Amino acid sequence: MHRKIEIIVNNSELTAGTRGASLGPGAIMTAARKANSPYFGLYPLHPLPDLNHFLDRENETEFAKNIIPYKQVFESVATKTQSVIEKGSFPIILAGDHGSAAGTIAGIKAAFPNKRLGVIWIDAHGDLHSPYTTPSGNMHGMPLSLSLGNDNLGYQRNTPSEQTIQIWNELKFKYTNASKVNPSDLIFIGVRDTEHEEDQLIAENNITNHTVEAIRKDGAPAIVTQTLKQLEPCDIIYVSFDVDSMDPEITSFGTGTPVGNGIFPEEAEEILTLLAKNPKTVCIEFVEVNPCLDNKINVMAETAFSLLEKVSAALNS
Q1: What do the Gene Ontology cellular component annotations say (predicted)?
Q2: pTM (predicted TM-score)
C-alpha cells in the first residue's frame, strides 16, 4: 500500500524535564547525512515554529510547567497534522518531547471527527498524569490524560492554579466536545515505569499493556496481532514511538528518561513496520531522542533513523 509521506518536525522540549530533546529531530537528520542517505530530501518537510525560548523565562504554572506556551505548540502540531491528513498524505512526526503527541491526536481527530481512533503507545512510561496528579509538573507525562479527558481526580495530590485549569480544560476538549480516545482503544507496548496514580487509572480502565516480557515470550508479530485484534472496532490508528521504550544498555542513554530492560531495536523494527503496513494506521510519531545525553555519540538518533527508514519503506511496500 503506497502512502504519500510528509514529515512534520516539532522541535519543542517545553514539556520535558531535561534539556536537549529539541535537538532530537536534528540529530536524526544528522544520522541520515552521516549515512549519506537522501531521506530528508525525498519527502515534503514541515518544520513547526520553535517556542523553546520560553524555557529562558520563569515558569508560571507549577503543576503543568510551560502550559501557556505549550498551548501554542499543541495547536501548531494539531493544525499541521490535520492539514497533512486532509491532503491525503501520511504524516510522520519527528518531535522533541512526548508532549507533542496530545497535539497530534487532536489533529487526527480534527481530520477524522467521526472516526473511532485507536492509539498504540510504545513507551517505557504511561504518560497518564494530569496537573492534579503529577509528581514533577512536566507535561510530557500528561499527553494521554489530555487525550482521554481523564484528570484522575480520585487520586489528586495537587491544587493547580485557575490559569492552569483553564488552559488544561481548553486543550482537553480542543476540536471535540468529548474525549478523543476511549481507554479501551489505548494499548501500551513496553510500558514499565509508572507511578501509583497511573497504575490506578490503568487498572480501573483495564488498559492493556503488552510488557517487554510478553514480547520476549510471544514474539513481536504475535503482540502486533493481539493489538490489532483488540483495535478492530477502531476506524483509524495512531502509533506513538518513544525511543525510551528501547533498552538503553543496547541502544544508548540518549533520551531524557531511560529505563532498563526495554525492548530491543529489532523488536521495535518488527512492531513498527507491521503497524505501518496496517491500512488503518494514519500517523506515526517518533519522540524523545536527546543527543545531549547520548553516551555513545548520537547512537540513539542513528537507531531512530534506521527505524524511520524501515517504517517509510513499509508504508510504501
Answers
A1: cytosol
A2: 0.98
